[in-house]
Design a protein that fits this description.
One of its GO terms (molecular function) is ATP binding. It comes from Urochloa decumbens. This is L-arabinokinase. InterPro entries: Galk_glycosyltransferase, GalKase_N, GHMP_kinase_C_sf, GHMP_kinase_L-arabinokinase, GHMP_kinase_N_dom, Ribosomal_Su5_D2-typ_SF, Ribsml_uS5_D2-typ_fold_subgr. The chain is α/β, with parallel strands linked by helices and 989 residues long. Strands 16, 17, 18, 19, 20, 23, 24, 25 and 32 form a 9-stranded mixed beta sheet that branches. The longest helix has 31 residues.
């Protein structure tokens, strides 16, 4: 390699000996192949043989490299991320395909690759970024190097959270494979990659240009003064109809990857499949597409403004996005605007950008030189910013990314030093709900309401105060969500604040939708929502919202939402819409259309929980919103932990909106309306206990509610000698998941079967007009109550109204363990549940889901009665036993998980162990909560120091076994009905 006068790196020169490289390229996307091409080109130019192992089309390499030293071997050794469409990754399908591609045939893959590497006498294995290639190289006794900006263990780790614990071994195996790699050549825009022992940073790898801007435009017949956007989504997906009016007047669009049969408007130009994209990008004025390494690196290199649409569930994206925005090269387009053709404001804004990336773009040359030196035996010694130091940095960053809003996740003890060494500090932003609340509300005048001494409310007002004094043009780097929130409100006008807590399911759980009595405790963690209404002409608006208003011919009511915490997840931080989108003429659109509206963009589906409350108020109460609305959501209720984060958002949102618009809605009615948000707009088939607890609960009391549909029986004061805790298993829970929905379907199937059986028995009894035979079950009861009882059961609305003894005596024997959807529909017609559907192709467990709510209602009634019994260990033991029985019943329904079972087992071990202290146990029972399939467990114990110590012991033992430190939920707080609302206004200076 030679060094130019400007300090850059020239072409790679050949060493004394001829080298053989095996270059493995992942099966995910063109970006990996195109960047590998640039490294391979330099190695081949130096006279080396390069064997490329890939599933990418050959033309990607052969159109650029015409040399006998290039060898293409078509093999797929990993699958990357499986995409449902150009913008959506199917997380479960990705894990399952990787399992079939790389796990099932692993042994044969390793054997084949070792034999092949030895047959070509490879000097070095290069991987971008195929995990098994590193292990195969180690088995063959060959050094290996990875070249990448992300690794699959980091990408798949999030998928495992959603798809289930049984896929964890995939991530562990990938990380172990990478550990055989000698070092990592790390590209800009990188993710945390702690699996690699040593790291060398290289510049952007970018394909070179072949033609000038004017040459490309001349070939395409485009004048120099015509504005051109290149449409680059890695292949034009079916169903995206492009329309002439989507472009500004006089613009042209170059479409990459369009199908041969697709018809394009006259201002769209279809490019050839093998068109050389870098030349076309450099000849364009901006690009519209999705974020990937190839598009981002070349946009930066050629200073091309990039209008990007977020791709769901791909963790590489936030890091590349940050790089784009840092160099003033990127603008995010909302997916809804992409699909509906609202392109103009984004394109016009893009051409005003001034991309300023000035870093080197010769990463292909640099990487080829390092690979060549490594192949001849040179050792690249880690500098002070490499190796173990980088490993610590990456893990610290990884933990920072996984922080829950308002709750710091502890960095493991063995990495604690890196915090001081790297200068990384936990990100205590001004919306941290655990921050010091002193003087937190002094900037605001409270015109209505009382903070009730709630420190999290004080902290929320402090965060608002920080926004009010924030200058969005400040050079100080800030999160996108805070930048958006700082221009959300008019601080001289009134703002309405509501608060709604999450809940801990003490008893009742999934029996709520079957009409059970439930016992729920509102937890300390809560969601705060601030709402301001304004005249559409005066509302402060984001730039793309303003542009849409202008395009539509004037000011119309607009909804703008900012959600704090989006930086910690894969969702967009903002959402906006015209409120007229909810209307069809003078009536609201249907629930199905509203659900479809929010389903278009998974990264913004979270907005259904907030905006859905507005739609339900319009539909159910006839409210018409003629003002614009700005909403800020900040929740410390962690998502996916089974403590009802969604209900707290819904209840807080509707409460704040109701306050702002003077709507007097009782807490119970508000909870029922919020359930409609979840069922009909979000599409999650939950019962109503979550919303009822969040709206109607009181601190340190159990809400005793009969879910028929939602009648608060009483608020049960928790006895002072009893305490409840929630322990998070670390396994994400979702009531929108398949397990919860299929169990609910099975339950309603069972109810329908019982009702039909009761009708049949009743018909036989009435038609025979004779007493039932002595062999029939409970003949005396039939004689005395038979007809009326059977009529009641034949018209039964709630399964929990069937006593256990009646179920066992009359119906249990005829309820099947499992039935297919098709068989059920053929015999019974429908299961009569408005929020789920029977899939004819699926098999459903019926017996356990039917039995569970019948017995659970009995258990909850017993639990409630026992709470007032004498304060003895026997009382606590009985309460704990009822919780254990509930837990086992969940498992029988298929709603258990390894994590929740482990926590319950730890409680049992501690409860029954012999201790040197003597005395009885302090913990007495535990059960899975809410929808099951992960989430949290509820633990009951004595209200004493020893029980708290044992909870901490369970935390430590669970972490030792799983690597995850459970969050502990303890304490309680008032529901939204007790909090009411605050009306605030910023004090004038």
């Amino acid at each position: 390699m030679r060094v130019r006068d400007d300090g850059g790196v020239g072409e790679v020169t050949a060493p004394p000996q001829h080298l053989v490289f095996a270059y493995y390229i992942t099966g995910h996307g063109f970006g990996h192949a195109t960047r590998a091409l640039e490294v391979v080109r330099h190695l081949v130019a130096a006279g080396h043989d390069v064997h490329v192992v890939t599933a990418a089309p050959e033309f990607v390499f052969t159109t650029e490299i015409t040399s006998p030293c290039l060898h293409i071997r078509k093999v797929l050794l990993d699958c990357g991320a499986v995409q449902a469409d150009a913008l959506t990754v199917d997380r479960l399908a990705s894990l399952e395909k990787y399992h079939q591609t790389a796990v099932v045939p692993r042994e044969s893959i390793l054997k084949t690759e070792v034999e092949w590497l030895n047959s070509i006498k490879a000097d070095l294995v290069v991987s971008d970024v195929v995990p098994v290639a590193c292990r195969a190289a180690a088995d063959a006794g060959i050094r290996s190097v990875c070249v990448t900006n992300f690794s699959w263990d980091f990408i798949y780790a999030e998928y495992v959270v959603v798809a289930g614990h049984h896929h964890r071994s995939i991530v562990w195996q990938i990380a172990e494979d990478y550990s055989h790699c000698e070092f990592l050549l790390r590209l800009p825009g990188y993710c945390p990659m702690p699996a690699f022992r040593d790291v060398i940073d290289v510049p952007l790898v970018v394909r070179r240009l072949h033609k000038s801007r004017s040459e490309v435009r001349k070939e395409l017949g485009i004048a120099d003064d015509v504005k051109v956007v290149i449409f680059n989504f890695g292949g034009q997906p079916a169903g995206w109809e492009l329309k002439k009016e989507w472009l500004p007047d006089g613009w042209l669009c170059l479409v990459c990857g369009a199908s041969n049969t697709q018809e394009l408007p006259p201002n769209f130009i279809k490019l050839a499949k093998d068109a050389y994209t870098p030349d076309l990008m450099a000849a364009s004025d901006c690009m519209l597409g999705k974020i990937g390494y190839g598009t981002v690196s070349e946009a930066l290199a050629y200073k091309l403004p990039f209008v990007f649409v977020r791709r769901d569930y791909f963790n590489e994206e936030p890091f590349l996005r940050n790089m784009l925005e840092h160099y003033q090269c990127g603008i995010e387009m909302i997916r809804r605007d992409l699909l509906t053709g609202h392109w103009k404001p984004y394109l016009l804004r893009a051409i005003t950008l001034q991309p300023c990336y000035d870093g080197p773009i010769n990463g292909g040359e640099v990487a080829a030189h390092i690979l060549q030196d490594t192949a001849v035996g040179k050792k690249y010694i880690s500098g002070k910013l490499s190796g173990a130091r980088r490993l610590r940095d990456a893990i610290v960053l990884g933990y920072q990314l996984q922080r829950a809003p308002g709750r710091d996740v502890g960095i493991p003890d063995w990495y604690s030093l890196s915090e001081k060494e790297t200068g990384v500090r936990p990100a205590h932003t001004s919306h941290d709900m655990n921050g010091n609340a002193e003087s937190s509300f002094e900037d605001f005048e409270i015109l209505h309401g009382d903070m009730q001494g709630l420190t999290d409310t004080m902290s929320f007002l402090k965060s608002l105060s920080g926004l009010a004094g924030n200058d969005p043009r400040s050079p100080e780097k800030q999160t996108r969500e805070r930048a958006a929130a700082s221009v959300l409100f008019d601080w001289e006008e009134e703002i309405y604040v509501a608060r709604a807590p999450g809940r801990l399911d003490v008893m009742g759980g999934i029996a709520d939708y079957s009409g059970s009595l439930v016992l729920q405790m509102p937890i300390r963690e809560a969601c705060h929502v601030a709402v301001q209404r304004s005249d559409p002409i005066k509302q402060k608006q984001w730039k793309h919202t303003q542009a849409r208003q202008l395009a539509n011919g004037g000011a119309v009511p607009v909804l703008q939402i900012v959600s704090f915490g989006s930086e910690l997840s894969n969702r967009a931080p903002t959402f906006d819409m015209d409120l007229s989108d909810f209307m069809d003429g003078d009536k609201p659109i249907s629930y199905d259309k509203a659900k479809e509206y929010f389903s278009l963009d998974p990264s913004q589906k979270w907005a259904a929980y907030v905006a859905g409350t507005i739609f339900v108020l319009m539909t159910e109460l006839g409210v018409r919103f003629t003002d614009s609305m700005s909403i800020l959501v900040s929740s410390s209720v962690p998502e996916g932990k089974g403590v009802s984060s969604s209900a707290s958002v819904e209840v807080a949102s509707m409460s704040a909106i109701a306050a702002a618009y003077g709507l007097n809605i009782a807490p119970r009615e508000l909870a029922l309306l919020c359930q409609k948000v979840e069922n009909r707009v979000v599409g999650a088939p939950c019962g109503v206990m979550d919303q009822m607890t969040s709206a109607c609960g009181e601190a340190n009391k159990l809400l005793a509610m009969v879910c028929q549909p939602a009648e608060v029986k009483e608020l049960v004061t928790i006895p002072t000698h009893i305490r409840f805790w929630g322990l998070d298993s670390g396994i994400r829970h979702s009531v929108g998941g398949t397990d919860y929905g299929s169990v609910r379907v099975g339950t309603y199937m069972g109810r329908k079967m019982i009702k039909c059986a009761a009708s049949d028995i009743l018909s036989e009894s009435l038609s025979s007009c004779v007493p039932m035979q002595s062999g029939d079950p409970n003949p005396e009861e039939y004689e005395e109550h038979g007809v009326d009882l059977l009529k009641t059961e034949a018209s039964m609305e709630y399964l929990c109204n069937l006593p256990p003894h009646r179920y066992e005596a009359v119906y249990a024997k005829d309820i099947p363990e499992v039935i297919t959807g098709a068989a059920f529909l053929e015999k019974y017609g429908d299961h009569n549940d408005a929020v789920t559907q029977v899939d004819p192709k699926r098999s459903y467990c019926v017996k356990a889901p039917t039995r569970h709510p019948i017995y659970e209602n009995f258990r909850v009634e017993a639990f409630k009665s026992l709470l007032t019994a004498a304060k003895t260990d026997e009382q606590l033991s009985a309460l704990g036993e009822l919780m254990y029985q509930c837990h086992y019943s969940y498992n029988a329904c298929g709603l258990g998980s390894d994590g929740t079972d482990r926590l319950v087992n730890l409680v049992q071990e501690i409860q029954h162990r012999k201790t040197s202290r003597g005395g009885g146990p302090s913990l007495f029972g535990a059960k899975i909560t809410g929808g099951g399939s992960g989430g949290s467990v509820c633990v009951i114990g004595k209200n004493c120091l020893r029980s708290s110590e044992e909870i901490f012991e369970i935390q430590r033992r669970y972490k030792a076994a799983t690597g995850y430190l459970p969050i502990v939920f303890e304490g309680s707080s008032p529901g939204a009905g007790k909090f009411v609302y605050l009306k605030i206004r910023r004090r004038s200076a």
